[in-house]
Amino acid sequence: MSGGRTAVIAGLGLTEFGRIYGRTSADFAVEAIARAAEDAGLTLGDIDGLLVNPGVGGDIDLRLQSTLQMRHTRLLATVQGFGSSAGQMVQYASMAIAAGMADVVACVYADAPLKEGRGAGASYAGQRRAMRGVGALPAAAGLKAAPERYAIAARRHMETYGTTSEQFGAVAVAARQWAAMNPRAQMREPITLADHQASRMIADPLRLLDCCLVSNGGVAVILTTAERAAGLRRPPVHIWGWGQAHPGYVNRRGSEFGLVTGAARSGAEALRMAGIGVGDIDMCQIYDCFTYTTLVTLEDYGFCAKGEGGAFVESGAIAPGGSLPVNTGGGELSSFYMWGMTPLSEAVIQARGEGGDRQVPAHDLIMVSGNGGVLDFHSTLILSPHPRT
Question: Highest taxon of the source (predicted)?
Fold first, then answer.
């Protein structure tokens, strides 16, 4: 992409997050898009492209166009790559803008799984699909939800490389340290490694503090051409590179499940497109549905050798003051859980230099991950406040 059709992120819209009841996913989506448009200095009437990630609940779809009263839509689609969807939407929107299919594209994720009077752990219970035959065997064996399935991946990493629960705990503690500086974060109270180890077991070896939050809310980003963004309200965030990788793991002998994720190929493609190496990256915003996911993604992106992720996070490298700031808003573990929009939104904030107390001085190149399913889908973005020369 070059010239005036190069796409940039020009607007960011965030709703409130957490236990916010009485509002639908569509309510959150409309608010997030309106806030993103206002942030950019645009109107809803300027938007001629809409990409919708419907979340697990599937409560928003293409009819969001009508809710927004969009009358001149040139690009309209749902994108369902689960936690990798945010990165995918930015990629597709960028290509559509470069091709002239649309001029201003809104990408939105919104969900409202939390219901009054029901615990967070039960929020996604109603979304499980009925299974029959051989396909039902994992569920019959107890692998019914994400924590159990990620626990298998985490345990395999531990058995293969000697990774410890305390090293997972270092990821949780670092995320909370960052969240303490983020006014939007749901969980800001400091925690210690001892707190992590004392938290109840959810799915061995994953404890409560190894698991992400559940949140109601919505996030949207707006992309347009670099030429148009130059005259808008906010500084543009430039997209240097991207990649996707979808391993298609099967539960069979010889699979690399739990050891190598889609981040390995997706990250390498994004770096190659950007024309940089992993050593050029200033910070990472990682999809951290579980502490293990942060650790294995950092390995697969190449910030440490395979099997050395535990020692890397234990060293304090990803915490405030560390050599590689990671999830500077608190991530999904401590800030809010909006699938891939959580790391993407923090990357935009950091690239603009608007992180307040948590702003990282070096923010020229930011790597953003999205992980969907149970390590099934992966997207990567490399963002910067500077245009690529």
Answer: Bacteria
